Amino acid sequence: MRYEGVLTKMRTEITDEVQYYMNWENDFINLNQILGKKISINFLKYECLNCHLEKKIFRQGFCYDCFSSIPQAGDWVINPELSKAHLDIEDRDLEFEKRSQLQPHVVYLANSSDVKVGVTRRSQIPTRWIDQGAHEAIEIVEVPNRYLAGITEVALKDYVSDKTNWRKMLTNDVLDLDLAEEREKLKAHIPEEAQEYYLASNKETEINFPVRQYPKKVKTLNLGKTPFYEGVLKGVKAQYLIFEDGTVFNVRGHEGFVIEINIGV
Ligand SMILES: [Zn+2]
């Protein structure tokens, strides 16, 4: 089977085991169904996800010009505490920013290698946790806008990391922790403006990833440097494909790359 198209992040569905899909213009691949098969990936060219021109991808699937100008790539996306739509202040496009920022957001704890704190829109749970490769996660507060979530995250970063160690996550060098207990410990450090939004009772969500064999050591595939790769797919975790030889491919990190994929037997 042969597919060709521009890569975008994998879509997911939470079931007993997460289901992963690569979406093409008129077709899709359910990756769970091709575990154990040999696949090849061939990088053809770039295609910016915004302007669709053949320009080198800078970040998040966008060329440099788009990344520097479109509202989807404003600084508040990565740093939620910089959100200003609740003050009626425009960054790049106030209407867009109001739609994105003025909606329920959740600050959570997710354990993918070590416990980290993060922010996401309510509608992105559990997608965000799956994309990070968290095998367990729990909500801390649910607030009415992105700014409040951002300042809560900043305050909690003094007590818990905000980074994932992706090597540990991909080799499954992880611990099971009692996140409800961790959450309780952080309660006192939530900023005053967000205290009232603490979720009184919340249960941990457990996530199982479709990985048949974890590598002992990982090496990353960067299509910009190595345009062709072939290997046996052994699993999918976070936004990574994991191959038998320890190669890992970050699909989200290659958004905007036009590729050809061949699936063998
Ligand atoms: Zn562009």
TrEMBL record:
<dbReference type="Pfam" id="PF10977">
    <property type="entry name" value="DUF2797"/>
</dbReference>
<dbReference type="InterPro" id="IPR021246">
    <property type="entry name" value="DUF2797"/>
</dbReference>
<protein>
    <recommendedName>
        <fullName>DUF2797 domain-containing protein</fullName>
    </recommendedName>
</protein>
